[in-house]
Amino acid sequence: MSLRADGLTLGYGGDPVVADLSLELPAGAITAIVGANACGKSTLLRGLARLLAPRSGAVLLDGTELAKLGTREVARRLGLLPQSPAAPEGLTVEDLVARGRYPHQSWLQQFSRDDQDHIEWALEVTDTAGLRRRALDQLSGGQRQRAWIAMALAQDTETLLLDEPTTFLDMAHQVEVLDLLADLNREQGRTVVMVLHDLNQACRYADHLVAMDRGRIHAQGPPADVVDAAMVRAVFGLDVRIVPDPEEHTPMCVPARRRRRRSEVAPGAATGDARHEPLAPDPS
């Protein structure tokens, strides 16, 4: 399945957030979209998922404009985890995950054993089975995030679009979720597109990396070809050293040593500046 943007311009009423952007997402691969805050990452993902109508240009799914496809067909083919999703008050985890199966049902085909099997699998792999009867509004941020991921997985689509899937998760659960997505890609050939804030995680898990800057693509390609000190400085405004990840040998960014501003140095503290030499001992 192919998903691409062609001359895509997106916005929310004022100046465009994403401008004349063209992008083809590799089928059967993991793509990570990275960039500084407010660069247009989430807006692009919303456009790819048909949550935001283009001002110009188009998103094409297997060559057909997404806007021309039926809602149920899109939901059967594109699974979405939006940023900061909301659910009705009192909804339980199991009820939320079951909503992922709605696109596969119709008047002639109601809830089936296959639907329940997908729900049970999604609860199990996201470690939320023990929370199934808990209301979402009673959970921690990390537990809620895993429940929403379970819903997207239960949808059982060819392509997953995930906006910051590791938000609110502790380090262990971040790795579990990213490992799970990598397994789904490797074992089932699912296309995964995710917005990530952690550039090192993006380098470790992505086959294809898209670096955005002010609504446009600054660079894209395999992480080893894209991520260098010049790119990080241009996109994030940060000086880094690029070293090999000791586990995966992918690029790893190490921020340069922080230089303290003079205003942060406590009065009387040694600074190494010649103008602040320590006083000579009192000869008396």
TrEMBL record:
User: SUPFAM superfamilies per the record?
Assistant: P-loop containing nucleoside triphosphate hydrolases
> Sorted alphabetically, which InterPro entries does this protein's record hold?
AAA+_ATPase, ABC_transporter-like_ATP-bd, ABC_transporter-like_CS, P-loop_NTPase, Siderophore_ABC-ATPase
A GO cellular component annotated for this chain's UniProt record is: plasma membrane
The source's superkingdom equals Bacteria
Molecular function GO labels: ATP binding; ATP hydrolysis activity
Which Gene Ontology BP annotations are present? iron ion transport
| Bias (Basic and acidic residues) | 273-284
Q: Which PROSITE patterns match?
A: ABC_TRANSPORTER_1, ABC_TRANSPORTER_2
Give residue ranges for domain ABC transporter. Answer: 3-239
Q: Where in the cell is it found?
A: Cell membrane
Q: What is the lineage of its organism?
A: Bacteria, Bacillati, Actinomycetota, Actinomycetes, Pseudonocardiales
Which organism is this protein's natural source?
Actinomycetospora succinea
CDD domains in the cross-refs: ABC_Iron-Siderophores_B12_Hemin
Chief location bin: membrane
Instruction: Note down the stretches annotated as region Disordered.
Output: 255-284
Name of the featured protein: Iron complex transport system ATP-binding protein
* Region forming the signal peptide: none
Q: Does the record carry Iron as a key word?
A: yes
Any idea which UniProt keywords this protein has? ATP-binding, Cell membrane, Ion transport, Iron, Iron transport, Membrane, Nucleotide-binding, Transport
- Membrane-topology descriptor: Peripheral membrane protein
Instruction: Note whether ATP-binding occurs among the keywords.
Output: yes
